[in-house]
Amino acid sequence: MLEILKKFEPLNIAEKGLLKAASQGQTIKFGQKVPMVPEPNAMVRAEVIRELLLKGADSFPDSFRGVMVEGAWINGVLSLDHCSCSDRLYLRRCNIPDYIDLSYAKLAEFSLNGSKITQLSASNASFTGGLNLRDGFSSENTVELTMATITGSLCCDGGSFLAEDGLSVEHVRDSINLQNVRISGAVMMGASTMKDGSNPIPFRAFGTVRLTEAKVLGSLNFVGSQIRSNRDLAIAGQDIHVATSVALSRGHEKHQKLECQGRVDLNSSEIGGQVLCVGANVSLMTDDSSRDALNLDWARVSGSVIILKTVLVGGFGLSHAKFEAQFTMKDSSIDAQGGIAVNGNALFAANSCLYHNTSTRGVVNLSYSEIGGNLEIEGGEAFGGPFPGVKERIALMVESSVIGGSVFFRDGFSAVGRISISQARVTHRVEFINSKLNADGEFCLTADSLNVGSTLIWRYIEIISGKVSLLDAKAICLGDDLNCWPTDGQLYLTGFEYERFSLSKPAPAERIKWIKDSFEGEQHAQPFLNLAEVYSRSGNRSARKDVLISMEKAIRRRNRVWLRTGGGLRFAMAVLAWVWEVCILGPFIGYGFAPSRSIWAALILILATTFCANKVWEAGDFVPEPAPILVSNDWVKYSQDDGIQNPAKRWIERGNGGQDFETFMPMVYAIDVVIPLINLAQDDAWAVSTERSDYGWYWHRIEWILRLVGWAIAALLGASLTGLVRSF
């Protein structure tokens, strides 16, 4: 029995006990806790352990199960580099002050649970039964597992990896290096649940947890971790492959949450399940706002991404990420110190993206993204920041994105800075409901060239400051509250097209005022024309006419303002334009859109002319037009009789000389005067005498004016019907 360790004689009491236990396949326990000082009864040489592990199977073929030690103080360097052994090695709750070298070794299950070591190097090693560094395990230097292969799980729950503990920024290290490692099971780096029911022990790391290009066939778990790195990179998971899920944090309890001082970088990672982060606190160690506290740029995630009750001090990188399921961020906050809070440029999400009650300080950029479901931004505050190439503060950008569902801004959402959804394509609805917008600059919302497949809703919106631009936007329905839009030229509507209204339907006059309030900042008539088309499509011709007339008024008014500001000749032209447009075009033909007004004007003029012509007739100031009648004896007899007030009336009475002459009818006479295109022979038969009374004198001059007005009305009617007047 002693032959196996003969070269190490004399063996101390602890080594003899170890040999006996190993020969019987048992664990030797020297104590319940890690020895802090060497104790003679618990001291074992590392060379003894090595020799026993490598030759024990040959010496005790029937009973040997490996080397299993608890509570020992192990002296010397434990060197198993390039060694191969199929039996387990358990060094639990041991103190190993010297180096452990497992480089290129091939071992079965290896456990350092609860042990305190100085340094472990296992690069290119192979573990066929898993690797356990948990339950109070601690290492003062980097645990090096580069390119190792672990058939089973890597369990570091409750371990402490203290490579940077107490070191300055200039002396940065990895706490554990798993670069290019291959693990067939899970990677557990969370809190360890103790069997005795005591408080869970958190996973602690001072230095970077490096997982770059690692391949994990199970899950990756950081639930209950505390990580800090002087180099500002806490978890380096670039290009990592995880076959199932990644759990960064699972709740607010200490043993459930991730606390990270330094970045969590999962850039270009591939994750076969979900990414869960609930109750995490991740903050940068520097003041560089361009850094992301949590980085999923170019990541590929097959499951959902859930970020709940998480605090990020630094940005959230989602650029070019691809999520095959839903993305949810709720009850969280992101403080990028005025930089890019969320960089989701070119993000792809097969399902919905939900931002609920999340506050951001910095730019939220989701431009050029493709989202298969809804984009829901509900509650929370977006306090924007500067963006390259833009002078004003930007709160949220969804420019040139494609949304397969709807876009919602609602439930008390507020933004300080511009929201831009320009050139986005939304399959269903875009809703702005119960939100507060503050530009802190020029525009609070730009939706230029926005394409909405269904309804654009704008209700219960409070605009503290800023303009709203809907230039060239398109929607099928418009459901809005007119009181929520900005006024005084702060609303840009040129090119905005919609086919009908939904929800509230204000009176046409209110809708016209909505456009006119925006027109101060516009140069085009398109908003009026589109509104007119909407009313025409609904069969409201009266409203359509009112819109078109208001359009002409607004356009011509702006033109007059331009003329008036030129002085001299241009000012005179402005006055003439005002007379022409306000006194003639508007009242008589509604700027070409209400030709019936000219007919009503003609009718009113005919009635007025009829009344006046009748007064002149009763005054006796009408005489027959043909000259032969005026010198006939019969007419002379009546006209020179001072007792006859109206000789023409007496002359045409039955039995008198003019009984066969054209009977005077005031209305027919008025039609002949006012409507030049009609000849009813009244003004050919009767003329006004200017010498008999003042009535005739005045009427002779008024008649010419009436004829000119009649010609003008006829010309305006013709120009209106042909559309010629609208060309000027």
Helix/strand layout:
Elements: H1 13-23, E1 28-29, E2 43-45, H2 46-59, E3 66-70, E4 73-75, E5 78-79, E6 88-92, E7 95-101, E8 106-107, E9 110-111, E10 116-121, E11 126-127, E12 131-132, E13 138-139, E14 143-144, E15 149-150, E16 154-155, E17 160-161, E18 174-177, E19 182-183, E20 187-188, E21 203-206, E22 208-210, E23 215-216, E24 220-221, E25 225-236, E26 241-242, E27 246-250, E28 259-265, E29 270-271, E30 275-278, E31 281-283, E32 292-295, E33 300-301, E34 305-308, E35 311-313, E36 315-317, E37 322-323, E38 327-330, E39 333-343, E40 348-349, E41 353-356, E42 359-365, E43 370-371, E44 375-378, E45 381-383, E46 385-387, E47 390-397, E48 402-403, E49 407-410, E50 414-416, E51 418-420, E52 425-426, E53 430-446, E54 451-469, E55 474-480, E56 491-492, E57 497-501, H3 508-519, H4 526-537, H5 541-564, H6 569-589, H7 596-618, E58 622-624, H8 627-630, H9 633-639, H10 647-651, H11 666-674, H12 682-685, E59 686-688, H13 694-722
Parallel strand pairs: 1-3, 2-4, 3-6, 5-7, 6-9, 7-10, 8-11, 9-12, 10-13, 10-14, 11-15, 12-16, 13-17, 14-18, 15-19, 16-20, 17-21, 18-22, 19-23, 20-24, 21-25, 22-25, 23-26, 24-27, 25-28, 26-29, 27-30, 28-31, 28-32, 29-33, 30-34, 31-35, 32-36, 33-37, 34-38, 35-39, 36-39, 37-40, 38-41, 39-42, ...
Antiparallel strand pairs: 46-47, 58-59
Helix pairs in contact: 1-2, 3-5, 4-5, 5-6, 7-11, 7-13
